[in-house]
Every structure is written in C-alpha cells, then in structure tokens.
Amino acid sequence: MDFYLSIDGARKGPYSIFKIGDLLESGEVTGDTLAWHRDLDAWQPLQEVPALEMLRERSKARSEGEASGRPAPLPPPLPDPESAPEPKPESEPKPESEPINPHADEIGTAPLPAVRPAASLPTLAEDPTRPRPFIRFWARMFDYTAVSVLVFHLSDLAVPQGLPGEQLSEVFNRYMEEMQKPEALIFARTLFLSLIGWQFLEAVLIHLYGTTPGKALFGIRVKTEDGKAVPIKTSLGRSFYVYVMGVGFYQFPLILIGMIFSYFRIQSTGNCLWDQHLKIRVENPPLGALRIGLALCAFFALLLLQSVKFS
What we know:
Number of helices: 11
Oligomer: single chain
Largest sheet: 4 strands, antiparallel
Distance between the termini: 51 Å
Order of helices and strands: EEHEEHHHHHHEHHHEH
Strand content: 5-15%
Number of domains: 2
Strand order of the largest sheet: 2-1-3-4
Helix content: 40-55%
Shape: elongated
Number of strands: 6
C-alpha cells in the first residue's frame, strides 16, 4: 500500500510502510504528521492511521520526545476545492455528534481539508511525480530500439529470413551461421560503441531539454529536485549510472537483473537509486489514449524501418 505525507505543507510520496518507519526513526516525521492512502477520505495523523498501527508506539515515542513550539504547517489541499462545503460560522454551536478535531490547537484556526467522497481522491494518481516504472521502461526501450535500428541499417549484417516450406530449425541453423561471420562481430562492436555514444547524447538532451525522444514520447521530464534543468555533469553521471546499474549494458541477463531491481526499488521507496543519490526528480504523468496510440505507432514505425532492409 502506498502512503502520502504532508510535510511542510507539501504532499510527499508515495512511501511504503517501511520507508515511513525509517522517516519516523530518523525524526523527519512524527506521529502528528498527516498521512493519506487510498482507503482514507481525508488526511489523518500517522498515529491514527489504522494501517500504520505497527508504527504507533514509535510514533508516540517520537512525538513525546520532540515537542515543538510552533504550529504544524497546514496540509496540502485535496482536489477540487470549489466543491468543499463552506465552514460553519463560529457563532453556530457545534452539534454534539460532530467529531472534534484533536489537533485544533496545533494548526490554529484554519480548517482542516474537508472530507471528500472517495470518487474525488483518485486525482492523487494523476500526480506527475508518482512513480510509474513501466512507462519509464518503455521510454528507455524506445531510445535503445532507435539506436539499434540505426546501427543495423548502417551495417552489412543480413539476418536470414524464413523461406516457404522451410522448417524453423533450418532457419535457426542459418541464423547461427550468419552470427559466426565477421560482419556479426562488427555489428556487435558497433552497437556497443554506439550505445556508449548515446549516453553522452542522452546527457546533453536531458541537460538542454529535460527529455529524450523516448521520454518525450511518453511525456517524461527529468529535472532537479527544485524543478531546474539538470547540470551537464549530473546528467552525464545519471546516464552512465543507468547504463551500468539500470540496464546492465543492455546485455542478458544483466539487463533483466537491473530492471527487476529498479522496479522493486521504485515500488518500495518511490525513487530510483541514481535519482535519489543525484537528487533528481522524474515527472511521468499517466498516459492518455492519444499518447498510447502515438507510442504504438512510433514503435511500429521503427519495426517497419528495420524491415525495409529486407525488402
């Protein structure tokens, strides 16, 4: 389950329950820090969220040991503020059945965000900072495929095609014979060097535009944590960081290991290892039908471009 926190009046997350435990242990948040997950209708203090019951004792200990003299910042507003009910006048007596806010003294006279129906809360899923590992995966695969198709067109390598009535085993044998020719070795070496060169070009594109062709196709933007352009040295470091640890030089099984590690790292902490170390923010909004169709057409165009060589 993913949790969002209200820290200094800004919404942060999503975080796993283990990450929230680490934040409590380090003192970055307390039991009074407001939290939300998809089963809640409004922000609630960490120590009152049922799903975080295992952290309650730690939250209470942290809250008692760190008393603050200033009021806690207001939580970020929930979506659609126009639909919130107007607060009742102070002169109107509060019904006995209406729950009293136990944190009124901490946040002053400003009202807490109004309780919304569950239907309005999914707009949190539209947060562009929410991790979407599969979108980032296909964006990187598009860039890799584009480089591979370009190198393939410039090489002398000819991939055997199946002939009418030919068995699959015969096609495979001819393919293995072709891979043993000097042209195949030249192709592999050229592709390896081209991918290294692409890391430099990717760094420049991210530094100048915050995106690459594949990332732009899926609406992804790379920025610093404060929303500025990524410095060229940081961008270059990130490109090679991903090339080595994220995709394992695009070599099997290293690429599979890197992808699995990255997926679970994003799901548990909300960020990749390299972006956390380099203090980089990746914005990847959810895909609409138009962008999905455009991506499918772009991948089909690459495959069609590669097949032109055999025609």
